[in-house]
Amino acid sequence: MPPSRLEVSTLLAIAFSTGVGCQARARRTPDDTLVILVEARLNSLDPRYCESNHDVKLSRLVAPGLTSVEQPSMEPRLLMAEKIIQRDERTWDVVLRPGFRFSDGTPVTADDVAFTYMSVLDPAMKSQELRGFQERFEKVEALDERTARFHLVAPMATFQSDIEFGIVSARAVRGSGGRFPPGRVIGAGPYMIESFRPEEVRLIRNPRWPLEPAAVPRIRARAVPDANARALMMVGGSADFTQNSIRIDLVADLATRERLHLASGRSALYTYLMMNNRDPILKDVRVRRAIAYAIDRERVLRSKLGGRAVLATGMLPPDHWAYSGDVTRYLYDPDRARALLDEAGYPDPDGAGPRPRMHLVYKTSSDQFRRALARVWAAQLGEVGIAVEVQSFEQNTFFADIKKGRFQLASMQTSPITEPDLLFTYFHSSRIPTPEDPNTHNRWRYVSSKVDELTALGRHTLDRAERVKIYAQVQRILADDLPVIPLWHEDNLTLMNVDVTGYQLFPTASFWGLLTTHKQR
Known about the structure:
The protein is α+β, with helices and mostly antiparallel strands. It folds into 3 domains: 3-39 and 224-266 and 492-519, Periplasmic binding protein-like II (D-Maltodextrin-Binding Protein, domain 2, 3-Layer(aba) Sandwich); 53-184, Dipeptide-binding Protein, domain 1 (Alpha-Beta Complex), CATH 3.90.76.10; 271-490, Dipeptide-binding Protein, domain 3 (Roll), CATH 3.10.105. Helices cover 30% and strands 21% of the residues. Strand 6 and strand 7 (147-152) form a beta hairpin. Helix 9 runs antiparallel to helix 11 (334-343) and helix 15 (449-460) runs antiparallel to helix 16 (464-481). The longest helix is centred in the last third of the chain and has 18 residues, at 464-481.
């Protein structure tokens, strides 16, 4: 376990031997540019075609939405919208705030809003957001220059969160055949694109942004897939900022370096152990509960994560407005696990002998930290007679197997959980991946008519107090059925050069906090 400190020492030894360490006390990035590191290549900053979390985070700096969830409560606030008026259960008017202009100087109008949403709703445009939009929006039209009317398919309690979607310039994109070239996305955000390559995006401050201008004139986002390379770049001073991209068991050690400091805070991320609910063994809820009792999450949180997480009881974090803690909890209890396995028809074949009750395969990515966690879970499950073979794969191969249901056990992490409607996204039976639609999120193949009913009701119930009651029921059912085992909500961890100050860390881990970030010698 203490390999974490050993690994950091090894990284630093390599840095010094290659000359990087010799400059560890000097920052090597420009004073007017914040160099940030992300883990994967970037695809597009057009909000209609973003593929990864990093695409979305950078996109919001270029093309923000009518509302924003970037605040500690994660509840939507007005941004480019001045006011929102509900005309009836299915009709909402959004009045634009005056003064917003696109980076090419043209004003943001209701026509731009209508065009953005209707282009996503056009199947020919092949936006990844198409299905979600089709479930929500029937039509969006411009009533006048500043008022956009949204016609909904059904009453949607999520409306004010839904319109956080980024707005693009209709005039500019119409001139490009409906799709922007990657480096030409025109939005009305605090930054605009200076250049775009999948390996590196350069943003420059938008002088037409009507609110408080971004503190740093330029952002340079570099895609560095190798975790060790990211760590060396931070230590060596060739990068200023990286968030949730350094192994959680190493980041505290790196933060002790003279030129680095760490900002941390609670997150809306959710890490879980998934089980294939169609598997002949795992379809038995007693086996799933036995696995939950057999793993010691609290010990692993302390030893592997350094306590930088909150134990989860379900998908929603404890400070979320719809969270309910009145659910079944699975504290470490190996004797209870063994009893449940006996009850499920998997007795220990040789008592204290070496033969296991069953064999399971645990698939994970090739990430070193996730492999280490998988080995811990395998060892703990072995103590109750469940033999686990850990198989690691390159990320794309691993994820393809998960989507196709070719797994028994695996662990993953969600995007930030801001809206409880995500319980529909992850647990409604209509969200089980199919060959025709492989990108849906119920990858554990869970089916519950009651959860289907309640999550559908929750998205169409406009009264907040009633939604809280509905989602409390959903959380109780999921805790009993246990289609996945809640692990924890890992802290957001931002490693920065000591010259970087003023960054505001949000539970969503967005890059919106970069607007208040300064660099100083």
